[in-house]
Design a protein that fits this description.
The complex is a heterodimer of chains A (299) and B (238). In chain A, 41% of the residues lie in helices and 12% in strands. By secondary structure, chain A is α/β, with parallel strands linked by helices. Chain A has a domain at 9-169 and 209-237: 2-enoyl-CoA Hydratase, Chain A, domain 1 (Alpha-Beta Complex), CATH 3.90.226. A 7-stranded mixed β-sheet of chain A has the order 1-2-3-4-5-6-7, with helices on both faces. In chain A, helix 3 (113-132) links the parallel strand 4 and strand 5 (137-141). In chain A, helix 2 (78-94) packs parallel to helix 3. The longest helix of chain A has 20 residues, at 113-132. In chain B, 44% of the residues lie in helices and 20% in strands. Chain B has helices at residues 3-10, 48-64, 83-88, 90-106, 121-125, 147-154, 158-167, 175-180, 192-202, 209-215, 222-230; strands at 18-20, 23-30, 33-40, 44-46, 70-74, 76-79, 111-115, 118-120, 133-136, 141-143, 186-187. Classes of the chains: A alpha/beta (299), B alpha/beta (238). At the A-B interface, helix 2, helix 3, helix 4, helix 5 and helix 7 of A face helix 2, helix 3, helix 4, helix 5 and helix 6 of B.
Amino acid sequence: MISYLEANARQRIHTLLDASSFEEFLPPSLLVVSPHLAQLDTPASFDDGIVIGRGSLHGHKVLAAAQEGGFMGGAVGEVHGAKLVGLLKRAVTEGVAGVILLLETGGVRLHEANAGLIAVSEVMRAVLDTRAANIPVIVLVGGANGCFGGMGIVACCANEILMSEEGRLAMSGPEVIETTHGVEEFDSRDRALVWRTTGGKHRYLLGDCSAVLPDDIAAFRQAALDALMRYQKAPAELTLEDLEAEHSLLSHRLQDFGNFSEPMDIWSRLGVTKPETLPMLEAQAFMQEVAGKRAGEQQ
Amino acid sequence: MKWQTLASQLFPQGHDIVEHDYFLRGSARVGEQTVAVIGTTGHTPIGVEIALAQANAILDTMRNFPGRPLIILVDTQGQRLRYRDEMLGINRYMAHLGKCIDVARRRGHKVIGLVYDQALSGGFITSGLMADACYALPEAEIRVMGLAAMARITKVPLERLTELALANPVFAPGAENYLNMGGVEAIWQGDLESCLARALQQADSLDHRSARGLERGGRKMSLPVTRFVLGESDVLPT
């Protein structure tokens, strides 16, 4: 077993894809770095915190990207974002079976804030362009920094999100909310609260990710392949009907849970009999325990 | 600018826009055509409700008025920073709004964004920035966050950031900086009705922002990197 959480971006992408199949585009040896960091006396990284390239997954040709949480928390700057956009566009010209995005990021890189914001918006549009070309985009979230900010929005533009329970997916980080509205609003040091609010299990129960996986790259590999295979038959393009279904899910969520202030109360309302036990369950036991109980799936 | 003043200048032929809990919705005449108008006002934070309300208005337009152009009026302080929004998955609500705009474009609706007051980070990325092209009034304030907060987080002294902001559009708030970086297509001055009419005429479904950023010098790396990755260029971006 190789922990997804503990691996870095290159280890993840090499282990996720077929052995020796990964070929990196714009590798660190080409020294393409952020044009903005030097003037802030901030060290640059030779890949600007993201690994992109092509490879295969069980023989299926894919393009993949992995954000490096160890460099500025995986935050998106001008070059980082442009690499993602280029990769997504290339998926269309190469006609690959899918794009796998291993996201670990706090969102926009504040050191190049304006460029980062525009870049994230370009990534959103590129993800949807790729899907419109009927190429599925699969997002993996299982790194220590989670997937936050604008990239938390990008993740929800993909066909599917696969998470480990250690993975977190949200918009504003708990620290930001605590700084703005006080510790009573969101105690960022209450790790149990942070995980049951933004972690994989809660996101799965709400219907925002399609699986909760063990913290093992092999499990991510299998789940990414399964997801890819679903789109061999089903269209990857986002349609008006998909949006209507999502609108109904999100409207019901607001109606049913809008007055709640504790995720466990939501789980209980969904029919989980002992919600307090869910955080302790291993991924597989969790998936069995909540089968048929996700929002929109209840019997 | 007050939205009522803006609306009367943008739509002198008339409109029926109403405000409900900081959410703007209605229709208006521009030249020979009717457009759908959605937006926000009062610098309101974008929480799950107002994101969903905007998405609903766009879905409604797609269903009932296929092809009708969409005008998005932006004034927001950004995403709402509350525990409840995070618990409910505000990122998905905002993505839903952005996706509704994107699908509307693909179904033949022209989409124009206009920042008439404030635009910040998450509230902007799934509204004005998802339009075919986003415009701004000269007094519009567009930013990710204030320089003081940025100094705190990046640990770069405020004096240094303030100094850099004078010369470099990447840090400083302001419509002009977003124009240089290609995030804003143009800044509207004078007759707003004809600005909008021209924007509708010029709108297309391609994302021109990195090309504009290169032309205007505010984002010199973005397009070259994308083209290099695409294999369209073998000149290494510097």
